[in-house]
Amino acid sequence: MLTAFVYNEVAVLVRHWFEIDLDDSHLEHGARIEVRLLEGQPHRGTESAAQRIVADRPVWRADLFDRIDGVPAAFEAAHFHPYFDGVEPSRRHWAAEVKAAPWEWLHGQLSDIDAVITAGGATLEDPASESERVRADVDTIVASARDRGPDRCVSKDLCHAWTSDVHSHVRIMLSGLARPELLDRDRVSPWLSRAR
Q1: In degrees, to the nearest 5, what angle opens at C-alpha 85 toward C-alphas 109 and 175?
Q2: Cβ of 32: how many Cβ atoms within 10 Å?
Q3: Which one-letter DSSP state was computed for residue 93?
Q4: Is it the case that residue 194 has pLDDT exceeding 80?
Q5: pLDDT at 86 over 80
Q6: CA angle 2, 192, 28 (to 5 degrees)
Q7: pLDDT interval class at 179 (50, 70, 90)
Q8: Which of these, 52, 94, 135, 176, is most buried using a 10 Å CB contact count?
Q9: Which domain holds residue 185?
Q10: What is the DSSP track for 36-52?
């Protein structure tokens, strides 16, 4: 399930995510928060017609993840991507404050959306107003992210249910493992059974 907070120029996307490390097959999961720029669309139909909303250009991403084989709620795999190269995220940035206080850190980041957008290499047409709009909802956005955090996903079946819409991503990860013999096949069984 994906929750989108859509504003005039940006959208903040919140969801649960499941990740398999391609190098050593360890498993991570938790809240993924992504900031994207909206693409203007031509008006269609009458004044009452539904309009297209396109939030395609990624600018920033936070992955507030636990390692499944780690200490619960330690956020050992929590990181962020401060910019994208096209649709590909930058390398993982491991800031101590992200692991120590992930929800407070997220609140701080989203409270200044213009700084996030600027650091991501983009600009807003009306940065003050857009920042004010996002800031007004930041408590709700962070609460939504917490609801998809690693501590709320209490089973492999729930994790699969929350990420079944991106099953193809998990299949790509499974096909690219350097050490597939290290994979916890029981934990990934919902994705493996659907991959057949």
Answers
A1: 100
A2: 22
A3: B
A4: no
A5: yes
A6: 55
A7: very high
A8: 135
A9: 2-195
A10: EEEEP----SSTTS---
**Tokens representing residue 134 in the block:** 């996002």
CA distance 90 to 95: 14
For the stretch 14-52, pLDDT in tens is 999 999 999 999 999 999 999 999 999 999 999 999 999
Judged on CB neighbours under 10 Å (0-12, 13-18, 19+), 128 is exposed
Cα R_g (the chain), whole angstroms = 18
End-to-end CA distance of the chain: 23
How confident is the model over 124-141, as pLDDT tens digits? Answer: 999 999 999 999 999 999
Do the Cβ atoms of 5 and 106 come closer than 8 Å?
no
Percent of the chain's residues with pLDDT above 90: 88
State how far the Cα of 3 lies from the Cα of 15, in Å rounded to an integer. Answer: 6
Domain total of the chain: 1
Instruction: Pick the closest to residue 111 from 92, 132, 125, 126 (CA basis).
Output: 132
Tokens of 71: 């200490």
Q: Spell 159-195 as b/e; 16+ CB within 10 A means b.
A: bbebbeebeeebeebbeebeeeeebeeebbebbeeee
